Amino acid sequence: MPLVNPLDSSHSPETAELAKFFNETLGFCPNSVLTMQHRPAISKAFINLNKAVMANEGRVTSALKRMIAWVSSNATGCRYCQAHAIRAAERYGAEQEQLDNIWEYRTHPAFSEAERAALDFSLQASQVPNGVDAEIKARLYEHWNEGEIVEMLGVISLFGYLNRWNDSMGTSIEEGAVESGDQYLGKHGWEKGKHDGSRY
């Protein structure tokens, strides 16, 4: 069981209405949001932030944003968020070659130099201590404008919150996310870990 049990999706009508967003991104409302609604102001604020961060204002595609989220979650070790991010990347049109080779983004030909710069930014920004430096900045500015860099860091920061929430909570992972985790990440050792529903 997780640290705190998720509430039924009907607990907060406002949260339920906002959470329809996740039916598009994941195909289900995540247990993390159902747990946040113990304090509905948090669940509502989180969903609105998620929608704002994932909105497309420039050339950072929905698929790339989810791959940025995966790299960030992989850096911090949150298996729940790794599976969610790769599932959402698939649902938002990431190329099959990219999904199959996300672990090798630095060298695999399916990734462009612009994508590599974005994903390296995610990796360095997600580490403690933070690894963003002048080299990362220079590489970003070769391919992206300031607004697009802000969008990327919005994703990285959003998943910083989610990684801490879900790993501390031991959030039970949903079956759809398990399927995506097994399909794309299992060959590299991904498993449910503490998110199998029996941690506490």
UniProtKB/TrEMBL annotation:
Q: Gene3D superfamilies, alphabetically?
A: AhpD-like
Signal sequence span is none
Any one GO molecular function term:
peroxiredoxin activity
State the InterPro entries in the record. Answer: AhpD-like, CMD-like
Carboxymuconolactone decarboxylase-like domain: from which residue to which, for each copy?
40-120
Protein's UniProt name? Carboxymuconolactone decarboxylase family protein
The top of its lineage is: Bacteria, Pseudomonadati, Bacteroidota, Flavobacteriia, Flavobacteriales
